[in-house]
Design goal:
- It is built from 4 helices and no strands.
- By secondary structure, the protein is mostly helical.
- The longest helix is centred in the middle third of the chain and has 31 residues, at 64-94.
- It is flat, with a radius of gyration of 19 Å.
- It has a domain at 41-132: Orthogonal Bundle (Helix Hairpins).
- Helix 2 packs parallel to helix 4 (100-128) and helix 3 (64-94) packs antiparallel against helix 4.
- Bound molecules: adenosine-5'-triphosphate.
- Adenosine-5'-triphosphate binds at residues 40, 42, 88, 95, 98-99, 102-103, 106-107, 110.
């Protein structure tokens, strides 16, 4: 069996640095991820939903704690959407044709996002109706 080429020898992959420089680099990579996520229609729709939810919470006179919980749930949704997008990108790369595994991977990622959308909508509905 032939040896695999070391991907780190590709000059487009930045070298790993240590300490504060590592944290600085990681922040840059996260911002690059945010730019990539902003190209996803689903992420844009979720931001629109968050804006509508914020308006509903404001109209219902939600407390600061209610708004904090809603904000944390929304950040969790964006985080899972980012991981789902990464999963889709990798799935398309590994399995460009139809496969049961690709279907499972994408459907499960979709389920994770769907559950968090339910949690977000449920929380806003509970606050607005006085249940929470
Ligand atoms: N390679 C594949 N093999 C089998 N089924 C697939 C494959 N690609 C997609 N699917 C099926 O099609 C569905 C939609 O896939 P798609 O890639 O369009 O994702 P999506 O959830 O619409 O993503 P997005 O709209 O965020 O890009 C998947 O959930 C899966 O059921």
């Amino acid at each position: 069996m032939g040896e695999r080429p070391d991907p780190r020898s590709d000059p487009r992959i930045p070298e790993r640095r240590r300490g504060l420089r590592h944290a600085w680099d990681a922040t840059g990579y996260s911002l690059a991820g945010l730019r990539r996520l902003s190209r996803e229609t689903a992420a844009r729709m979720e931001c629109l939903g968050a804006a509508l939810g914020a308006a509903a919470l404001w109209g219902a006179g939600a407390s600061a704690v209610d708004v904090l919980v809603a904000a944390i749930l929304f950040l969790l949704l964006l985080a899972v959407e980012a991981i789902n997008t990464a999963l889709e990108v990798l799935t398309n790369r590994v399995s460009p044709g139809w496969s049961e595994d690709a279907k499972d991977a994408k459907d499960l990622g979709s389920l994770a996002v769907g559950l968090l959308i339910l949690a977000n909508a449920g929380w806003v509905a509970a606050v607005c109706t006085g249940l929470a």
